[in-house]
Amino acid sequence: MKKTAIITGASKGIGRSIAENFACKGYNVIINYNSSSREALEFEALLNAQGLSGLAFKADVSVRSEVDAMVDLCIREFGSVDVLVNNAGISVSNLFTDITEAEWDSVFATNLKGVFNCTQSALRYMLPAKKGKIINISSMWGLVGGSCEVHYSAAKAGVIGFTKALAKELGPSNIQVNCIAPGVIQTDMLSDYTDEELEVLRYDTPLMRLGKPHNIAASALFLASEDADFITGHVLSVNGGYVV
């Protein structure tokens, strides 16, 4: 029986690369999206045209009812949820003194509450099966903090704490919970950076290059594999040496 993975925020960037990797390895993949419907549906069609198994589903991860509907659909269509990758996230740069309450709440709703919603919903099926892999996408700024990104850094630090605590709780149920903390990855989140700013980021990365989405996707696929069955509560830093 094929395994099934739910990938949140999978219409583009890191999430899309993760979903593509899993589909190519034979997984059924739920392609979660919220606002990027065109990209998600085109990606679904592309996977299916290649004989792979992808199903796009719209759900705002900050809304529990929408998340439950997504997970329930996964069970109806594929019979199980074997892997959950909590990738959906938003990034907003702002001086701390300029962050509005609405902006703070929005970042936490997607980046941290979304992880809570999706994980608790998936556990309705993982716990009775006594197996499952939960992979949370944090950030290197969750490890060390980023100037002008206090809300983002705080939420991503919360994802790391969430991972470590839940790994201890779910260990006896044979469910592994791990985290990936990406460095500077070439996605749409860098679209507002100038060439000069990107060059500084490259210079500050010991490997002297920016990461690609497939670097994160390969790490997620490993953590979902049987080779990682004895790894839980771990934070895998994929950042080219930016944070060591």
TrEMBL record:
Keywords: Lipid metabolism, Oxidoreductase, Steroid metabolism. Gene3D superfamilies: NAD(P)-binding Rossmann-like Domain (3.40.50.720). One of its GO terms (molecular function) is 3-oxoacyl-[acyl-carrier-protein] reductase (NADPH) activity. It comes from the Bacteria. GO terms for biological process: monocarboxylic acid metabolic process; steroid metabolic process. Transmembrane segments: none annotated. It is an enzyme of class 1 (oxidoreductase). Its EC number is 1.1.1.100. SUPFAM superfamilies: NAD(P)-binding Rossmann-fold domains (SSF51735). Belongs to the short-chain dehydrogenases/reductases (SDR) family. This is 3-oxoacyl-[acyl-carrier-protein] reductase FabG. It comes from Peptoclostridium acidaminophilum DSM 3953.
